[in-house]
Amino acid sequence: MNVNIDASWKDRLEPEFEKAYFKSLVHFVKNEYSQYTCYPKGSEIFSAFDHCSFDDVNVVIIGQDPYHGPGQANGLCFSVNDGIPHPPSLINIFREIETDLNKPYPKSGNLERWADQGVLLLNATLTVRAHQAGSHQNKGWEIFTDEVIRKVSEEKEHVVFLLWGGYAKRKGSKIDRSKHCVLETGHPSPLSANRGLWFGNKHFSKTNAYLERQGQEPIAW
Length: 221
Hints:
Uracil-DNA Glycosylase, subunit E, 4-stranded parallel β-sheet, globular
């Protein structure tokens, strides 16, 4: 089965593409995209991997599923295309960066600039039907992204995993915490942030401090 994904990932994930669950998933996704409006567009489903090769990964952020509004999703978790209003969770992420790192609020919500520095922006589910949050959950994507996390954990060292909210924390069970840095906090959504579970987590400065201790370049958030 030909899955259009960056070669550094394809080499490691090829066995998944031949498994029954993945073949079923591909059939489901193709059927959904042929019958309904779905996001992101087909060429961007694996954008998180295309912008951040396996060798370059030094930070992993785990989201739940893509934005389901027109023009928002671009294959990177929490990211939106240029010119699209920032969703509430992204606004809260940028506000935390403002206070944590004393950086100005950015105009662009496109996080390709993070991915290109080695931040894997991984949604647990890589596709969604328009206006129906969670509509492609439990179809096989979660099995695939669990394997992605397991591969990073097993084959790399000193990666920072940022787990925001209960869903991401559960995905964190695949991480070997003896050789990686795992930072956990509430989800940046207004529901969580307004209950005091997001702001002040300082995950961005903590990530950079850890990377620098390992002799790696900090992320220009």
